[in-house]
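haha ok so turns out i had the wrong file open the whole time. this is the CORRECT one, sorry everyone. sequence first:
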Amino acid sequence: MRKVIVNEFLSLDGVAQAPGGADEDPSGGFRHGGWHMGYFDESSQKWVLESLTEAGAFLLGRRTYEIFAAYWPNAPAEEEVIARPLNNLPKHVASRTLTEPLEWQNSILLEGDVAKAVTTLKREDGRTCASLAARTWCRR
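then structure:
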């Protein structure tokens, strides 16, 4: 049985946002994208890289999937160490609006009730699944 580990960037006052740039997700009038990059040090970078490379798969919501699928397949060479696991490992995607086939390689749309689908994922053999809210990971 594998674990699902949630990785979320969250401020002390409850702002959840991916580590992208200021314009990554301005929905709802949000104007503070990329807020935490100023606090991202070598230790943080090491932790993120270890989380990505130790994952066996990723669990993504639709919005995160769309952001990642638009960027990581064409990431610059200096980001290859992060792009490699994101592009090559399985990505399980929760969405009510996306349809198969998903364009980003190794992406699988979760069928039916998301809670049941994630429970099924956890029961399978395999390495940890990382859940990215604008990330999520899988690990054994």
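The two ends are 8 Å apart (CA to CA).
again sry for the mixup
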